[in-house]
Amino acid sequence: MAETINLSGKMEKQLPAELVNFIRVAGEVVASKGQSLHLVGGVVRDLLLGQANFDLDLVVEGNAIELAQQLAGINQAKITTHPRFNTAKLQWNKWSVDLATARSETYAKPGALPTVKPGSLSNDLFRRDFTINTMALELNPSRYGDLIDLYGGNDDLKRKLIRVLHEKSFTDDATRIWRGLRYEQRLNFQLEPTTLQLLKRDIPLLDTISGDRIRHELELLFREKHPEEALRRADELGVLPKLHPSLKGNGWLAEKFEQARKLNAPNSPPIGLYLALLAYHLSNEENECLISRLRLSKPLAQILRDTISLKGKLQSLAEPELAPSSIYSLLYQYSSLAITANSLASDTPAVRQHIQVFLSKLRYIKSTLTGEDLKRMSIAQGHHIREILHLLHQARLDGKVTTKQGEESLVNSWLARNVK
Ligand code: ATP
Ligand code: MG
Predict the structure, then answer these.
(1) Distance CA 59, CA 148 (A)
(2) What pLDDT sits at residue 381?
(3) Are 62 and 46 in contact (CB under 8 A)?
């Protein structure tokens, strides 16, 4: 038998002391109840890779909610429970730990959510997506830090391979297709040849996945450092067209994503901006298909609609001598992310410059006089007031007036000339 690998040293070195203490205590508490506790999934993978990951996933062969309630007291942690799956989350300071009761999962049909039953640790590891995510660490004090590697995860890590556990994996849950591409690109690994074949075979099953679940995968993708890489791969393999056949994961997209990151540094760009760039070349109708496929929220859908609609106005915005009030009237009705997306997408300097002026200055400019003020200046109600307010706002935007007095004399001069 192969020698047991022990990762307690790596845990000590790579995880914050507060988390290590928590894990130790949790292991002791569980052992005292005669149960067993394991650290599983991404954090084990990343400990072996030497990459920072502080999202702890614990699996208990026992009862996760009871255990969470016991452990919550130790750190005065906030506890959230999901009795249906018998899972719990503990949060304190900046830490968050997920606890799950070991379970097995079966799939009634492709695209369905799994049927969940209590199970052993090995059941729980077997339900997972890729071998590199199936490794676990013993937390009971007698074997603290021992690596449990039932499916060759560590070998695949060394060989830089993404491998499913069985040939029905993508059939059971086609979201794993997107997950696979995400890990492949993030870690700079390769899909193992059989896994790649199975993935290609099951691409049509992406149609069985609900909009909410596909959108969730896309949101996870947009949190990666370079989402364009998995999008390029998704395009190459025919996965991206399953979102919409006209989407492209090409060099243009990569360049625009990069610019979006520079613009938002040190934060990552908002999802709405990435999404707007991805959808940029769609027509209105195509865009509507994408919005309903992903069941986008109203605000996100609005950003996409605004993006496509504004794209149709860029020619007017490219005029070199545009008055500020004209820039304003071309842009004011659009969400700022849609405007930014258009600025990034356009290669015309005048467009970018006009958008820059609008976003940094024009959108904040207001005129001072109100409808009430105008009434006091004996202007009839209704239409005229609105029109005069609009003209005043334009005069402000164009720098023709800069003070309240200036606005009043402008209104008086219009009245004198009988301009409504
Ligand atoms: P990341 O670094 O992307 O967060 P992770 O491994 O922590 O990687 P999570 O999405 O947080 O990934 O999920 C935790 C674990 O749950 C994974 O390691 C994987 O074993 C399992 N998992 C998540 N989604 C699926 C899925 N669709 N099918 C099978 N197993 C999954
Ligand atoms: Mg995670």
Answers:
(1) 13
(2) 55
(3) no
Strands laid side by side in the 147-148 sheet: 78-82, 87-92, 95-101, 56-61, 36-40, 136-138, 147-148
Structure tokens at 12: 């000590």
Nearest atom in ligand 1 to 46's CA: 2
**Sign of torsion, CA 211 212 217 221?**
positive
253 closest CA partner among 351, 350, 269: 269
382 residue type, one letter: G
133 within ligand 1 shell (Cβ under 6 A): yes
Give yes or no for residue 98 CB within 6 A of ligand 1: no
First to last CA, the chain: 93
Whether 176 is in the pocket of ligand 1, judged by its Cβ within 6 Å, is yes
Instruction: Give the ligand whose atoms come closest to the C-alpha of residue 126.
Output: 1
Nearest-10 Cα torsion for 297, 298, 302, 305: 70
Burial (CB < 10 A; 0-12, 13-18, 19+), residue 117, is: exposed
Angle at 273 between CA 351 and CA 397, to 5 degrees: 40
Q: Beta partners for 148?
A: 136
Rounded to whole angstroms, what are the CA distances from 377 to 250, 381, 388, 405?
Answer: 59, 11, 12, 13
Nearest ligand to the CA atom of 42: 1
Q: Name the residue at shortest CA distance from atom 15 of ligand 1.
A: 41
Ligand nearest to the CA of 172: 1
Residues contacting 180, CB < 8 A, separation 6+: 129, 130, 162, 164, 191, 195, 199
**Residue 28 CB neighbour total at 10 angstroms:** 14
What is this structure's pTM? 0.93
- What is the crossing angle of helices 227-237 and 175-187, to 10°? 130
Of the residues 47, 53, 128, 217, which should be mutated to test ligand 1's pocket, given the most ligand atoms within 8 Å of the CB? 128
**The pLDDT of residue 384:** 82
Chunked mean pLDDT (size 10), the chain, 420 residues: 89 96 95 94 97 95 93 91 93 94 92 87 96 98 97 98 98 97 98 98 97 97 98 98 98 98 94 98 98 98 98 95 97 98 96 97 95 79 79 96 93 75
Distance between Cα 46 and ligand 1 center (Å): 12
3 state SS for 164-211: ECCCCHHHHCCHHHHHHHHHHHHHCCEECHHHHHHHHHHHHHHHHCCH
